[in-house]
Write a structure and sequence with these properties.
The chain is mainly alpha-helical and 113 residues long. It contains three helices and no strands. The longest helix is centred in the last third of the chain and has 47 residues. The radius of gyration is 23 Å and the shape is elongated.
Length: 113
């Protein structure tokens, strides 16, 4: 299997999980949330300051269909993570390859002189 095919497969699986399967996730509270409710800690809970943002509350603002809104939000999230991660990978990779190239140039120049 080539690296390109692996990444394409990874992208397809990520988009399917984020866009379709995420709709079927449980809406029940997880363990930490349940303990916070049982112990009364959640009574002090406040809304997040970005709750009304375009992607706040696991949906896309302005889209009334919850299935479409949640799926689109997941797909946008996958895209954002891939862009940021890919950009960081590209920057680190590019920075890492420039140092050996400079060393090769210095060695080649020393050999000519």
């Amino acid at each position: 299997m080539t690296t390109k095919r692996f990444f394409i497969g990874f992208l397809v699986v990520s988009l399917v999980l984020a866009g379709i399967v995420s709709f079927y996730a449980s809406a029940d509270p997880d363990g930490l949330e349940k303990v916070a409710e049982d112990k009364g800690i959640s009574a002090k809970e406040k809304d997040h300051s970005l709750k009304d943002s375009p992607l706040g509350d696991y949906g896309v603002k302005g889209i009334d269909d919850s299935r479409l809104s949640g799926g689109l939000s997941g797909v946008i999230g996958v895209g954002a993570v891939l862009l940021v991660g890919g950009g960081l990978f590209w920057a680190v990779r590019r920075r890492g390859t420039s140092a050996p190239a400079a060393e090769r140039e210095k060695t080649a120049a020393a050999g000519r002189g």
